[in-house]
Every structure is written in structure tokens, then in C-alpha cells.
């Protein structure tokens, strides 16, 4: 039995997220599994490094699957990219040890979030950024990023209710780069809770626009109450860039 690791890029605009949903064919996982099943003539289930929400994109999602197929890797990539929709692309296929697991072996992830910061929206960036027209204070946003970096219990910055599992995560890097009207935020950490990047992003924006005070970050770490943090920004500005192993 072979274990195949895939590196996948996708535009999430048309899909209901990564995870297969019943009979729906509007998920990334479902689309890829259907083509793999055709290719191998056996029912294939793939394991992703994690779920991405409806509308979220990926430059480097990782998945693995087990197969008895003797097909060479380059032929697998050709087959997948020939029959998958054009907004899902398999960039790489590798044979990995049998015990490799895309989710359990992941050591960290990098996400990007893009803000279109102008009073006029962009016709071209609308599916790949959040249009936020408020004037932003970069000094305050950088200070917010510094406060959020490090090891903290991020439950107040997630959509999770109480859970027995640990909600402590480490953010190694949270940086801001301005590219014209587009502002690029990079999040690197050992793991992210459900909607955590989108809620952190909303909090940083509300601090940058003066809607929230900088101290709210420490207050939410203390209170662990989601409603005290900023808004959940829309999914279309979010990209999963890379998964670290």
C-alpha cells in the first residue's frame, strides 16, 4: 500500500470549504476524491492538513491518501489536473512513509490575509481580499501584532465554545506589508483554532481604525470571551500558504 502526499492550490470562491459534505460536490475534498476514485477505480478518501472554510483559498494545502495503484507520480498529477476543475490544481505528488498523516504530523501553518484599503472597491480583488475603507493606523496595528505574537490561550479569538482540548497556540510571526491599496497580513504559528485568523484579523482592523482600544487584546486573553474581540472578517481574503512538517 502506497501513501501519497499531495500539495494542492485552489480558489475557494465556488466551494463550500475543504471538508466533504454528504452528497454535495461543492467541496474541495469531494472533488479531489471523486477524480482519485476514477483514476484508481477504488474508493479513495483523502486526509487534509485541516479544514478551510467556504470561500477560503489555498496555495499550499496538504493531503494524503493510501492506494494500491502502480501509477507513477507524474501520471497521477497529469490525470488529476486534466479532470479537476481549473480552480483546483495539484502542484506536487510525493510518495511518503506509510505512517505520514497530513493532519496529525503538521507542525505549523502559514496564512495570509489581504485587505483592500480604499474608498473605492476593486473589481479584480473582490474574491481575494476584504474591502475595508476605514483609514488605518499602522503603528497601532503593528503594536496589536506584537501583543498577539507568542504563546497564549486563544479561545476568546476563536468560534469555539468550551472544549476539553487545549486552546493554547503559539504565533511565531504576525507581520504587515502594504502593497499599494492592498495590505498583506502574514500569520505563522504552530496551529490555529476555528476562525482564529479571521477574528484576530478583525480585531487588528478595529484597533487600526480606532473602533477598539489596544488593551482589548489583553482583556480578551484574560476573559476568554469571544464577543469582546473584533469582528470575524470574511473568508475570501484568507489564504492557506504553507503547512510545515
UniProtKB/TrEMBL annotation:
Keyword presence, Isomerase: yes
Protein EC: 5.4.99.12
Catalytic residue positions: 53
Gene Ontology MF: a single term: tRNA pseudouridine(38-40) synthase activity
SUPFAM superfamilies: Pseudouridine synthase
Catalytic function, reaction form: uridine(38/39/40) in tRNA = pseudouridine(38/39/40) in tRNA
Record-linked CDD domains: PseudoU_synth_EcTruA
Function (record text): Formation of pseudouridine at positions 38, 39 and 40 in the anticodon stem and loop of transfer RNAs.
Assembly information from the UniProt record: Homodimer.
Record-linked NCBIfam families: hisT_truA
Family: Belongs to the tRNA pseudouridine synthase TruA family.
Protein's recorded name: tRNA pseudouridine synthase A
Organism: Enterococcus plantarum
